[in-house]
Structure formats: C-alpha cells, structure tokens
Amino acid sequence: MKIKSLSYILIESTDINQWESYAHDVVGLMKNEDKSDENNLFLRMDESPFRFQVVQGNVDRYAIGGFELASKEEFEDAKKQLTELGIPFKLEGDDLAGVRCVDELISLKDPAGNSLELFYGRSSDKNEFKSSQDISGFVTHGLGLGHLVFGTLEVDAAHNFYTEILGFGDSDIMHMRFSPDPNDPESVLYFMHGD
Prior knowledge:
Elements: E1 5-13, H1 16-27, E2 30-31, E3 40-44, E4 52-56, E5 61-68, H2 72-84, E6 90-91, H3 94-100, E7 104-109, E8 115-120, H4 155-165, E9 169-176, E10 187-193
Parallel strand pairs: 1-4, 5-8
Antiparallel strand pairs: 1-5, 2-3, 3-4, 6-7, 7-8, 9-10
C-alpha cells in the first residue's frame, strides 16, 4: 500500500467560531461557504474543497486524518491487504464520501487508537482560493498537508503499522529524553513520509 498524501484533518471543537476567527485572522485560510454550516467549518488552503473540517463537539481534539490513495485499484488493493492482515475497517457510505469530497473511503484505527480514513478520488473546488491575509496561496503542489503528529506508548506497534502496512518510509529517527533526569526513559520519535 502506498499513501499518496495526507489530504485532510477533521477536528472536534467546543467552539468552531474560535477556529473560524483563527483561520481567517491569523493563518489566512478560506472558509468554504458552500459546505460550512453552524456545526461544520470547512477550511481551504488550495484547490481542494477543504483541508480542515472542524465539527462542533463536546471536546477539543484531533478526530480523523484522511489519507489519499492514487486510484480505485490501489483502494481495492488496500482493502484486500487489510482484510488479509485481519485489520478491521469499515467501508463508509456515499453520504460520508460526499461530505469528504471523495469517491470512496474506508475508516480504521491505528494501534494507538487514532482514527484514519483511506480514500481515492478527491475532487477539486471550482471556486478560486482567496486568502483572507492577501497571500496568493499555500504551496502544497496538490499534496495536501505537510504532517501529522501522533503520540503513543505502543511505539513499535504504531511504527510497524505505518511502515509495514500503510507503506510509509522513515525519514529520520530521534532518540531523546524530555527532562534532564538521566533516569527518565528515552523516547523515540519517528519521522515518516508517504509516497
């Protein structure tokens, strides 16, 4: 399996109005007026219909990362591989695919419990991207977002999942302690990349 890009992130928030103000006044993202409503804020940074979806909720947290596969064939192959490996996933319906602006998607969890979506066929937005901060655009080259950070105590299981199953490669590995106490256990950070 080869992940083409991290295409979108879904965030749950107790106050989506704060997200809208921050996105508009600080970052320069564009609200997708056609998709947004009182419970959903869709934010654009390029030709994609959205890169961030902020949903009204009871907590402030990361909810889902959406990873793109290059084609229907790769999507079907991913489902086959997950099935053969005994990794549970759910084929989501057309309604959710429509919200995410994709042809088809599946949802699953990594070993740390982080929610992911794998999909193919992301549509573009016909409306021109216009930043509120008078910038011409974010340089994404159609690849979406730069990175996503997960923390876990199950480092080996998570690393194996992303490299052996999702096909990520290691870019760098850091070993470090987060305090000056030499008795603190060493932590490891894996920097990984998609296709």
